[in-house]
Please model this.
Amino acid sequence: MRAITITRHGGRDVLAVLEHPDPSPAPGEVRVRVAAAGLNFAEISARQGLYPDAPKPPCVVGYEVSGTIDAVGSGVTDFQIGDRVLALTRFGGHCDLLCVPSVSAFRMPEAMSFAEAAAIPVNYLTAHHMLFHIGTVHPGSSVLVHMAAGGVGTAVLQLLATVPDVVSFGTASAGKHAHLRAQGCTHPIDYRTKDYVAEVRRIVGDRGVDIVLDPLGGKDWRRSWDLLSPTGRTVAFGLSNVIDGQKRSLWRVIGQLIKTPRFTPLAAMDLNRSLQGVNMGHLWDEVDMLHGQMTAIIALYDKGVIKPHVHAQIPFSDAAEAHRLLEDRENLGKVVLIPDGAAQT
Ligand SMILES: NC(=O)c1ccc[n+]([C@@H]2O[C@H](COP(=O)([O-])OP(=O)(O)OC[C@H]3O[C@@H](n4cnc5c(N)ncnc54)[C@H](OP(=O)(O)O)[C@@H]3O)[C@@H](O)[C@H]2O)c1
Model:
């Protein structure tokens, strides 16, 4: 099989499509002939050497794929060769053939394309988990989401639109505001030209917002906390502020860590606020929880309520371009990687 391989930490030139041995399914596994694989911000961090969970290079990363089952291991009764599935992987997803436990695979609806299917697991499970399992959005809630035009942000806005009377704020470059509005965002904010805290306060007043979904980290976690209403929740789910450009800067990392606020339970109690953390990669084995969430997400897709926004489908052989789209902040929604020559029907 062929896989996009991070040969060492560094810029986009460290990516190479290399041959690896074909895997065979172990008991309880299915083998998927990959048609599309999702690219996530985490994999940009992994290439740069800023993602502690990632395997050491040379390595193949990737959390999600879609494709067709071409072999089943012993004991698998719920899938057959030829089934179209989307699947969760913990690394190794950026390849054209891989094995996953059958519990990590989900049958695709007929109307769903492979590109859409590869855009679902990380973005929509993360969004669904933050809004409905831990951040608990209610009718009338006010929610601020950062990086709102990206993959997770787009999924968050689409899911928020399923809850009545939600007021949503999304930070993104000005050129992406039409996209935000199309996903249901009430108040797009251009964080490059406006202070988002002042802008949110101008609209909601001193009360603040009920939920802030914050993948920026560093000083923004403090600013998110300060923006919360009584009973407000901050969900910390990323540290994008450490990334700027193609290569890691340890000074930038240290700078952001120094600015990370220290919270105490006393402050949380006095202010009636909570801080919640999410790392979906560490929940990939929580099969029962994820099955409930994925079933809900696929049902919303079937009803036409959500639809992944695929910004670009890029062949494996041009993986550096796919990484560039995210690094240069050009993407709206999801960038999907396609094995060269893979059938899309
Ligand atoms: N904890 C978890 O389980 C989990 C799961 C998924 C994702 N995440 C995190 O969630 C965040 C969003 O992920 P994603 O995959 O949705 O991202 P994405 O699709 O790559 O979104 C990238 C967009 O975010 C904006 N942005 C803001 N600050 C940025 C920065 N420092 N570097 C690059 N882009 C920046 C850019 O748009 P503008 O033009 O608007 O600036 C860019 O186009 C990341 O921090 C990721 O690590 C966490």
Remarks:
- Residues 241 and 316 are 27 Å apart (CA to CA).
- The longest strand covers residues 29-39.
- The first helix runs from residue 41 to 48.
